[in-house]
Specification:
Blueprint lengths: L2 H30 L21 H11 L3 H6 L5 H34 L5 H26 L10 H24 L11 H28 L29 H4 L1 H28 L4 H26 L4 H27 L5
Helix pairs in contact: 1-4, 1-6, 1-11, 4-5, 5-6, 6-7, 6-11, 7-9, 7-11, 9-10, 10-11
Length: 344
């Protein structure tokens, strides 16, 4: 590939990462405003056209009334209230369609113009498969809330959110890989990289358990910090049987795990930051580690306030958004320490 080809494909990857970041924010608003089940069908093509006339809005509202969320949660809501929740789910789906176009159209162009080498073709194809899977998973998740219980499955929510982070992470990594110049990380790069990979693994688990907290509405209980009321280890932690489901379906256990993992990430971040100075790494390496440490500190505080104030929409969305910023910073840090080698 030429330098120009690499530049164009790199911009394409960054565009994908930016749009996934945006849809994560809109998805958070959709979830926290209870908007996710307002559109009760899935029409990838015709669904791009929203209700326009009063009659069309009435038809959409009547369709919504046939499902459990209206009957059990929102009975008696006005058309204006329905339009509000419809708007967020519609916007979420439209950005999803935009992401599809941004991936598919340039992919076709680059393929026809023979801009890909074999490695980039494989990477781009992987992103397309993941994007398609995410669209299907999104509908599969919504469908779980349209039958009997008006709440999406926490397992499907966790899968949907995890896929978003995976796609975002691949876009960032692939874009960084197409940079042609790198700075030297200095001494200790190998050790810091190992610590960052450990941090990345724990962060990945933390993101998944964050999805379970959201899916179970576990942020609305034990709204004290640092203790859970008067307990460090609450008595309801292992009440459910079989034992294993406590990790995924017990609201108390899920929130407790989320707290423990957050604290562990904070301790690791402090340790990596201190270690980066002990190892005399380069200024750039120190800045990468400092960025991870700073974002972890900010995210920890946001998480505490989100909990204490019973998950207001803006704090919940901010918490989810900063999680993806942290995820990107960790990927960037690992990539720098892994590939930085050409310039001093």
């Amino acid at each position: 590939m030429t330098s120009a080809d690499k530049k164009h494909i790199r911009i394409w990857y960054w565009s994908g990462a930016t749009l996934v970041f945006l849809i994560l924010i809109i998805g958070g608003i959709t979830r926290l405003t209870g908007s996710g089940l307002s559109m009760t069908d899935w029409k990838p093509i015709m669904g791009a056209i929203p209700p326009i006339t009063d009659a069309q809005w009435e038809d959409a509202f009547e369709q919504y009334k046939q499902f459990p969320e209206y009957q059990q949660v929102n009975r008696g809501m006005s058309l204006a209230e329905f339009q509000f929740i419809f708007f967020w789910e519609y916007l979420h789906r439209m950005i999803g369609r935009l992401i599809g176009l941004v991936f598919i159209i340039p992919f076709g162009y680059f393929l026809i113009k023979n801009k890909f080498d074999s490695a980039q073709l494989k990477r781009a194809s992987l992103l397309l498969v993941l994007g398609l899977s995410q669209g299907l998973m999104g509908w599969y998740m919504v469908q779980s809330g349209l039958i009997d219980v008006p709440r999406v499955s926490p397992y499907r929510l966790a899968a949907h959110l995890s896929l978003a982070f995976i796609i975002f992470g691949f876009c960032v990594w692939f874009a960084l890989d197409l940079n042609e110049k790198y700075k030297q990380p200095g001494n200790g790069a190998s050790e810091l990289r190992k610590w960052l990979w450990l941090f990345f693994v724990i962060l990945s688990f933390q993101i998944v358990w964050g999805a379970f907290v959201a899916g179970l509405h576990a942020g609305h209980i034990y709204n004290t910090f640092p203790k859970m009321h008067q307990f460090w280890i609450p008595p309801e932690l292992w009440l459910m049987q079989p034992f294993a489901i406590n990790f995924f379906e017990n609201m108390v256990t899920v929130q407790w795990i989320h707290r423990v993992l957050a604290t562990l990430l904070g301790v690791l971040a402090i340790g990596m930051w201190v270690r980066s100075y002990q190892l005399e790494t380069s200024f750039t390496a120190k800045m990468w580690i400092l960025s991870v440490f700073s974002i972890v500190l900010i995210q920890y505080l946001i998480g505490v306030f989100t909990l204490v104030y019973h998950v207001p929409v803006w704090l919940g969305v901010l918490h989810q958004t900063v999680a993806m910023v942290l995820f990107g910073a960790v990927i960037g840090s690992i990539h720098f320490l892994n590939r930085a080698k050409f310039l001093k």
